[in-house]
Batch of 4 targets.
Target 1
Amino acid sequence: MHYRNLARTGIKVSQYALGGGMYGALASEKDSIQIIHQALDAGINLIDTSNRYADGESERIIGQAIMDRREDVVLATKFGAEPGSKLNQSGGSRRWIRQAVEQSLMRLKTDYIDLYQLHQPISDTSFAEILGTLTDLVREGKIRYIGTSNHQAWQLMEAQAVSERHHLQRFVSEQSPYSMINRGIEQDITEMALRYDLALLTYGPLAGGLLTGKYTAGQAADNQSRAARLKGAAAQALDPELPENKHKFDVIRRLQLVADQAGMTLAHMAVAFIQSHPAVTSTILGPRTPEQLSQFIAGTDLRLSPDVLDIIDTIVPPGKRLDDKEQMWTPAWLDSSRRRRV
């Protein structure tokens, strides 16, 4: 396992991070705990989750699993993307952030969170409000550092300016989707991360399982697969039977040929591709079983040659996203109320 600097915090994190999105949802508690222990034994020290994953069950399971190994873990969780069924119990208000962090600390069975992240952009709360509250929590020792997820480059720059202007804590990381078929962040986020020394934690390296090669265009997905078990836009992005996905599966077939010629699995090539970008600090993996984690770890030292990277660039050009559903969320400013004059 290789380790990289988490921006300029002085903390080193593993090249792979363990994502908690499956725990309490698609992975049983027993398997989840086994995966977490297996990851720690393999040298993975960054574990990422969110208060919304399985309605908090992911945090609870992680807290249980790392109780005796807390000091070995760089623990990251998120807030701000709660379903919001109850008034004032979601978003980025001072009132809610303070409630949310206490709930996460309780579920995680810890006194502090190493990296507390804003899960998605919040349009009705200023960065000054959010950063002011997070700064107070850092001073109180409840969180160590702060980061973002799913933000655009202009939002990250606005946040940096607010931090400097008001002498508030600075976001040290951004978590964004990135894969061979979803290269949108190469347009601006990767370069911004390098220029402004922001740790870039990327998720979705296998594009929800598409880059494992287990799906075939026109054929129904296995009942136990992620494509069959997910709902909504995420499921549509994976569905091999949808005609609109045919082009995506044609591209994946071409990528599979490249992997075959390079003598590696498509999944290993997909993760190694992410690792090849100098802006990427850590790649978040979301294994559903211990066997899947073992397969990931087996590719730790794989490096793609310039020739292979050049071929991938001809199949999916830099900065291109094959499917807008890969973004997994819709910016608030695309709502009709924000696009039309009244």
Target 2
Amino acid sequence: MAKITLSTLRHSYYPNPKSDSEYALKEVDLDWTDGGAYALLGPSGCGKSTLLNIISGLLVPSEGKILFDGKDVTHLPPDQRNIAQVFQFPVIYDTMTVYDNLAFPLRNRGRDEDTVRERVMAIAEMLEVTDMLNTRAAGLSPDNKQKISMGRGLVREDVNVVMFDEPLTVIDPHLKWKLRSKLKELHQRVKATMIYVTHDQTEALTFADQVVVMQLGEVVQIGTPVELFERPAHTFVGHFIGSPGMNILPCTLQNSVAMFGDQPVALEGPIHGSANGTTEIGVRPEFVSLSTAGLPATVTKVSDVGRHIVVECNAQGTKINAVIEGTPPAKGDAVHLQFRQDQTRLYVDGWLATTAQEAAA
């Protein structure tokens, strides 16, 4: 296990990049502590896999350094970085038994059979596959194959980091929650440094202690799942995390008052920094309520998603979602919307520009 430091990392697939647009990674500075559980989250093409391949040694970055416990490994090949990687598709040997698949990484490094058996049995027990140790891998279900692939990554005790590259993509949806829970349990038991790459917010938020959200080669926010949900640092984070995502309303400023059309909107606190640029109001649907007074709107859609109801409204040509409980209005009804003030924020050019009252006091 190791602390991983990414220092002023940039990467371009062009031989002589001339602008930021030609960089797949624009600049990344990160510290991941020893034994932590981390996720790289973002849409396809945002740079997640590029960053993972740089950490693993499959790519040498155009600029910057990768440090493991302070040691510069930027130019070391993968076999000298002491890492384990679990891929989107299970990497196992179908002709081998489950036992031999789990034992292979240890035998390949010359470990004695007593040690091999001890580690294989320990991992098999954690994965709940002890009863299939003598089964050939070819006969396993897809979720069990991925379990064995995970076990091959965890069986070694000397790895610096275990990296997961969208490992649940090919797993049936009804089995994903089982493997997500199992992976979280495994991290808590083995205490290895783990990095999980995914475009699925549910996977990232249920696995990781810290989530790195990426967009267009940039890190836009690093935080706990609660921090990302409750206080998005960028409108992209608010939109990408949550279902439905954060409402984004165009606004103007008049004497430091946010105006949505001709309606003033109370913000969480004072504006910090310069407000020159594109200004928007962000508020999550969970903090929008239907009321007898407030912002006039018309209901355009009502969706019952089981645990709550999502009411989609139109206000001055802008779509606003509200998450409510109880009896919903009907499509076409005129309603009024209230925003919870301490959860209503101003964003300038996409970035958070208000300070919470508690922090300002």
Target 3
Amino acid sequence: MGAIDLLFPAFAMAALTFIVMGRMAVERLGQLARERIHPQAVASSAQMAARIKDTRAADNFRNLFELPVLFYLALVVGVQLDLASPLTVGLAWAFVALRVVHSAIHCSYNKVRHRFLAYVSGGLVLVVLWGVLLAGAL
């Protein structure tokens, strides 16, 4: 197992982020057009929140820059310290899978309990990944 194997989950997370970004753009632009909202009328986040009704994709897009930041850093640390192993790569893919589930829930039916379970599970996987990396670095 090589360091490159730790980068593929990063590419997958980036792809998920781009997919959610696209969905957010389609939803926002669609609503602006349907309701004839001038872009300047939603220039600030407060104005956007007051005018845009469906914010699920936008909310999820913001979430993809929270825990995943630690994920990306963990992968860089793993690559730099040559800590790619079946365990670290498996944990990285597990995190990606849980973020896909989280995004799918968040951007669709948005049941908070289900979304929270995916979020917490991903967070725990990330903590374990960091623990494994720390143990390997010592």
Target 4
Amino acid sequence: MINKKVADVTEALKGVSDNMTFMLGGFGLCGIPENSISELVKRNVKGVTCISNNAGVDDFGLGLLLQKHQIKKMVSSYVGENDEFERQMLTGELEVELIPQGTLAERCRAAQSGFPAFYTPAGYGTEVAVGKETREFNGKMYVLEQAFEADFAFVKAWKGDEAGNLIFKGTARNFNPVMCGAAKITVAEVEELVPIGELDPNQIHIPGIFVQRIFQGKDYEKRIEQRTVRQRD
């Protein structure tokens, strides 16, 4: 097996530059590639397009890139937890493409699988379908959606080996799997990195063929976006 391990996040993001398109895994603040996002902030890359379910919160996740006006365009399905996102969108500073959540996932999966496009009923008859090809199948109308084209995909897994095989934990198994292999280069950061051969093949969610670079992450905060508790009796 090819060893995909790199020394750190700096080496993992080699080749990142302005005006690129990035995919970033996660849902809310769950399973986001914290180390990769911090490195993007540090490098101060500009004019980027981010494909992600949402844009984090004001002071964490992709919200950190928004604070520094590094993002030119967001391609997302949910953006309700970020005041700075709302401000930039309403003032025209940020270009936004809102996509039904299932369509977002399938456009990632199509890119991962090598399909150029697919038909979906989601969005037909709404603004989502404006300017897109539509077609009837068995009496039902569908919209043609194209696979994403991205330069880098940044994903976060619980455990991985040096060949790039990945295991996700709990709800962190959200958009991360479908973004693996969906860009020219997939960078995986993991909480635990083990030698090749130490993972049970039956437990692997994503095989290493979909990953080009993997590194051991550190200092994960794993913030909770909305903490809901009930009073004790």
